[in-house]
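Target protein
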Amino acid sequence: MHRAGELDNARIVIIGHDDEEQVGQARANSIEMWLTGNRKAWVAIATEFGGLTDILAYLEFLDESRGWHCGVTAVDAVENAASKAAVAAFQTEFNERFEGKLLDDGVCGTETLGAVFDVLAHELARWLDKHGLPPDHVASLDIEYLAAPAGVKVRGGLDGASVPGLDVLVGEAAWMDGESMMPHSLYESEVLHVLPLVVSPEVGGWAIGALTVVSDLTPGETMLPETYILSSTDGSYESRLVLPDNATDTGLLELLFDDLPTDARFNLRVEIEGVGRYVVFTDLSYSGLHRNAVETAPTKAR
């Protein structure tokens, strides 16, 4: 989504890969159902085409990266005592976090799959909020969901046909001359170039974020010390950085606040030695700090 936002008239193409084209299409469709919030259809796809390994891999991610307590000893396709314990731990914690009513029996049936979807949808909502994007942002994107035919070889050294999974292609819609193209046309094109898109980990998960303040001052410019004080409205957070002492030189002087709790609202004021102080903004949500932010209520920024 970030990459698409950097392009004019961007198109995202999500292509599912598997030895069976029907399964590859199901992979792509499951992403569509997730992004569009279609819980019932997602559960149906997961029931028909998914497996225990898919669920265990996600539980492992939740345990290692999202602070859940549903550790997986091995991602195995065969149900065993360890896999049932991991699923049961997820069911119990889901009930606590989401006021659910799952039976914590360690069996991954349709109710538990629905709970997995609810967590996925919650993760997406938190990501959008953290980055200042409105809930309907996905609906505004031009996305196609396709399946790669067996034997398709991806240019640039990637071989999507040999490994089940997904490719996400992001580029300007002009690639396709305004028309929907099939995967083999994209992969075998002599015109298009494959440039791998590096997706960085979400530093701090959804709980912690960063804010960069860019000044209009250049390194070496004569200036009085300026102290930037970023604080939360509820008083639980405060950080002070000083120009030029704490600044990063990027051609201009920048200050990085890198430990902000994303569930707080913030105020920023500046104190200039011997001059006085002024307010940059007050009572902004974390998402409101982002350059793409859409505030739903008036703020006191000035």
Remarks:
- The two ends are 29 Å apart (CA to CA).
- The CA atoms of residues 64 and 71 lie 8 Å apart.
